[in-house]
Write a structure and sequence with these properties.
binds beta-D-glucopyranose; six-stranded mixed sheet; 759 residues
Length: 759
């Protein structure tokens, strides 16, 4: 293949414009005469949804070619396993390449702002570190085959309600720290080759045509040089979009966008270099795919077995009172609930996969325990009195009961949000009635996102299986019978009441007609919010049980003080103190003591999943760099680490911290805000540099301040201290007139700014 630059030079204006608009629903324009092939795109995040071009849609309406259905993102994230996600990416990449798919439209990495978002099952986490790290690993895997990953939806795609009109309005710090951070990791660390813009606007404009997001941050700051494409039908205005850094409008239209592009270049409204930049980004991806060695094809059987492996690592054991799990294979067991036989294993919409075969928990459990008793218990989402009676009788006659419930398919999907955390009342009633006849009750949940559990006290054990893909049946059965030791942990907080969730007051839902959604909770999303507000969740972020126990010891930091240009090495030991082998997810959080800006109690900054045989001990080591301690300083326009003490907290969940220590981190380049006439005295006096400049003048004007300073005990009297501390330079001047003139203030301000390195 010729170099992209040479290919570009051979294309006419119209040919270039055609490359920037889909040729049809799934493909880009091809030019065999220039050796430029089409790029074929397919969803998606947890399995291929390859459609024939003649039977295309972006909502999972028409059937796609059969392919393996892996656990959805909300489940896969519970593995907290970078290596497994990398392997999942490899498998997806191989399947894509063998099916002739060049760009896989996933993974989805939006942050779960509200538990109600209809697409939460397609997203990883409420935490940007976890989402970014897992996605980067998955992207590396996909791109190890000749296939490009396309992360989506850039950015802040947090709701389905009014999804194409809503404007996600937030401050720059929130945007950077919460909603862009995972994208940044996937671009910088994962080397992703394509990014899809979101349907929603961000701070006033669609991301495709938002120069701040797409040009300044994505392209210039992060150095992304791949394809930036619109979500399907998300194009508003193509000329400003290309100017802002977009490469490709999807899907194609009747040629009108091409005509607009050509005309705009001819009119001089669009610079040809801008079009060239977009074309080059596409040609570069074509070239990199050609240079990637061919991948081995994958069989449906291999895919299914791997889907089972991911699912086994994803399932989360939320509760296990009296250790009623694992079940004995010789026990008399009642399996209740239609969902055991007809599993809910994926979500609705554009990510919908047409699987080769789906295993049910019931058929898999029967293989291990042929004598089990099954009763459907309900019909769809409705109570059926006869089925309920039959289920009660089955439960009463058995040693242990396993009830399968969750969210029916119609409760969560792309295109709409949920309006509550409730599951169907029929399922709640089932749990209550079963518990009344047999207290040894385990509940298995199939749902794509957080639900409320008013029945929790009635169940001794709860297994969260999420939407676990086509092999979820094997995983659930293996975990229930203890053949697999559960090792998944929650990637989101299970809050009890929607009213307690961070976005509750600010998220237009249901019939709300507002297109402006203000993210007023700011950076306080998920556990960052619940911890700060001291709201006890039902199950905290990072929680998950095992059939064994792990002891943490010997936290070591390689230094007690460092600059933000250095790395902190953190290590600890973890021992499996129980009787079976297991996998533990060690989580490292950092909390800033006395933060100068609003800050969460702590934030996840690193994690690792390790395997331990009974009695085995392993040392786990982490490195924390600048970003682990930094916040986004909007005045500086960069991440900044304020000088101070930081807590290093290592634990088994956000609420189960086992080891901690503190470290001092100093910025290499200390930053001070700009001094102005409105700077307060406290800020000036607390800065050695500034107070050295100001103190002489301050001593001179004190006798003229009308507060009787000589009678106040400035050291001890809070009133006097606060009064002065909060005084601005201009206010001080307003009391002393000639003794602090405007020119003097300006000169002092100037001097202080120069001392702090500002010219
Ligand atoms: C979805 C995308 C998807 C695209 C193509 C859109 O409706 O938002 O996530 O990749 O369709 O199917």
């Amino acid at each position: 293949m010729q170099k992209p630059e040479i290919q570009l030079s051979r294309l006419s204006l119209e040919e270039k414009a055609r490359l920037c608009v889909g040729m049809n629903f799934w493909m880009t324009q091809n030019y065999p005469e220039y050796d430029i092939p089409s790029l074929f795109m397919s969803d998606g995040p947890h399995g291929l949804r390859k459609q024939d071009v003649e039977k295309s849609d972006h909502l999972g309406i028409n059937e796609s070619h059969p392919s393996v259905c892996y656990p959805t993102a909300s489940a896969a994230a519970c593995t907290w396993d970078r290596d497994l996600l990398r392997r999942m990416g490899c498998v997806l990449g191989r399947e894509a390449a063998q099916s002739g798919v060049d760009i896989l439209l996933g993974p989805g990495i939006n942050i779960k702002r509200s538990p109600l978002c209809g697409r939460n099952f397609e997203y990883y986490s409420e935490d940007p570190c976890l989402a970014g790290e897992l996605a980067a690993a998955m992207v590396e895997g996909i791109q190890s085959a000749p296939a490009a990953a396309c992360v989506k939806h850039f950015a802040a795609n947090s709701q389905e309600n009014r999804r194409k009109a809503v404007d996600a309005v937030m401050d720059e710090r929130t945007l950077r720290e919460i909603y862009l951070a995972a994208f940044e990791t996937v671009v910088k660390k994962g080397g992703v080759k394509a990014v899809m813009t979101s349907y929603n606007k961000v701070n006033g404009d669609y991301p495709a045509q938002n120069p701040h997001l797409s040009r300044d941050i994505l392209r210039q700051e992060w150095g992304f040089d791949g394809i930036l494409l619109t979500d399907w039908g998300a194009m508003d205005q193509i000329v400003p979009s290309l100017q802002a850094g977009l490469s490709l409008q999807m899907p194609g239209n009747d040629g009108s966008s091409v005509r607009k592009l050509v005309k705009s270049v001819e009119d001089g409204r669009l610079k040809e270099e801008c079009l060239d930049g977009a074309v080059l980004s596409i040609l570069r991806v074509i070239q990199s795919l050609r240079e990637t060695p061919a991948a081995e094809p994958i069989s449906p059987e291999e895919g299914h077995a791997f889907a089972a492996e991911v699912a086994k690592n994803a399932v989360v054991l939320l509760k296990n009172e009296d250790s009623i799990l694992p079940l004995g294979e010789n026990d008399r067991i009642a399996v209740i609930g239609e969902m055991a036989a007809e599993p809910r294993y994926q979500g609705g919409g554009s990510s919908h996969v047409n699987p080769y075969r789906v295993s049910s928990a019931l058929e898999e459990m029967k293989k291990l325990c042929p004598g089990l008793v099954y009763a459907p218990g309900y019909s769809g989402a409705e109570t059926n009195e006869a089925l309920l009676e039959q289920a009660r009788a089955a439960a009463a006659s058995c040693h242990t009961v396993v009830a399968f419930i969750g969210l029916p398919e119609s409760f969560e999907s792309e295109t709409y949000d949920r309006t509550s955390l409730d599951i169907p009342p029929a399922y709640v009633r089932l749990v209550e009635e079963l518990a009344a006849v047999n207290p040894r009750l385990a509940v298995v949940l199939s749902n794509g996102s957080v639900i409320s559990m008013p029945w929790l006290l009635r169940a001794k054990a709860v297994v969260e299986a999420y939407l676990c893909g086509e092999a979820g049946g094997e995983a659930v059965s293996s975990i229930l019978f203890g053949r697999t030791n559960p090792s998944g942990k929650l990637a989101e907080t299970f809050v009890g009441r929607i009213e307690d969730s961070p976005a509750y007051l600010y998220t237009p839902a249901g019939e709300d007609r507002s297109d402006r959604c203000e993210y007023r909770e700011g950076i306080f999303v998920g556990y960052r919010y619940y911890e700060k507000k001291k709201i006890d969740p039902v199950f905290p972020f990072g929680h998950g049980l095992s059939y064994t126990q792990f002891a943490y010891s010997q936290l070591r930091l390689n230094r007690k003080e460092l600059s933000d240009g250095e790395e902190l090495e953190v290590s600890c030991r973890v021992t499996n103190t129980g009787g079976v082998a297991g996998r533990e997810i060690v989580q490292v959080y950092v909390g800033r003591v006395d933060s100068p800006v609003p800050a969460p109690v702590k934030e996840l900054r690193e994690f690792s999943k390790i395997h331990l045989e009974p009695g085995e001990t392993k040392e786990v080591a982490f490195r924390l760099g600048k970003r682990a301690f930094a916040y986004y300083n909007t005045a500086l326009g960069d991440y900044y680490v304020p000088d101070g003490q930081y807590q290093i907290l290592v634990g088994a969940s956000s609420a189960d911290i086992r080891l901690w220590d503190t470290v001092r981190v100093r910025p290499e380049k200390p930053w001070q805000p700009e001094v102005t006439r409105n700077t307060i005295l406290r800020d000036i006096l607390e800065s050695p540099q500034w107070s050295a400049i100001f103190s002489e003048k301050y001593a001179q004007i004190q006798p003229y301040l009308p507060f009787g300073l000589d009678k106040m005990d400035l050291e001890r009297e809070p009133f006097a201290r606060a009064l002065l501390n909060n005084m601005t330079l201009h206010s001080l001047a307003s009391y002393v007139g000639e003794h602090l003139r405007d020119e003097e203030i300006d000169a002092l301000v100037d001097q202080m700014n120069r001392a702090a390195g500002r010219s």
